[in-house]
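User: Okay, second chain of the day. Same drill as before: sequence in, structure tokens out.
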Amino acid sequence: MSTVTQTSAPTTLRALIAGEDFTDYSVENASWRLDADAIESILYDRTVGDWSLGDRHTEAFYKAETMTSVALNSWLCTDQQVGLYLLCLNGTPFALSWQIGRKCDRNVAFLNYETMIFFRTAWEEHRPDQTERQVLVNDAVLDMPLAAPGHKPFELDEQSNVEDVRLSIFGIDDWMKSLAPAGGLGTFYDQDVLASLTRIAEFGISRTEMRIAEIDTRAVTGSLQNQADFTSYRADLVNEKMAWEQEILTPLRMRLDVLRGLPDPTE
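Assistant: Same drill. Structure tokens below.
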């Protein structure tokens, strides 16, 4: 597991959105991130079908509105910045954009129903109303911890989609270590964040358990090749699972139980 040194307290995505203060973050014009087809897709699950019409609509929209992106967890892929971005329209956060590679799809989901209506209203001011499509961020995503600006971002699970983007189990480990300067997990009180991270840790461990079970099944059926390699790999997975349970899942569960008023098993 990686080590993160962090001197200032991290925040959450929910708190960052509520504060609308992106002073310490990289903010840039984002009109290039969403063309007419992309907007029509996330709103109505369709494409424009007419490039000329789409270009005129997009030109009018961006002439009247200002879209910016806030880099939450980004990196350079060849010659393009990718990662997780918060999209804002006229300074108001409305969606998340998630792309893991330069040649990978850029996925977008609205923060909630209200921000979808907010964006759709602005978009439709230049065209008659059409059937909506709801592509919304799971509310639990807003409880995702964010590293303090200027510090190493907490690792994201690249298998998650934009509606349910989440930390990886290594990202949770990094977040827990970032609490050390303030006194560790025992000084953290947000139950929603703890519950969300506990579910993510449980999910990550269950995926490892599934890989172990798959190896065991293939061993029984005799379909394993390079038996020695798989035996070593299985042992690594078992050790990984035990470490995650002891160092991440159990502390999260215990802290959550304490905050919920349940007895502390260590006392």
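Strands lie at 11-12, 27-29, 67-77, 80-89, 92-99, 107-110, 145-146.

User: Thanks, on to the next one.
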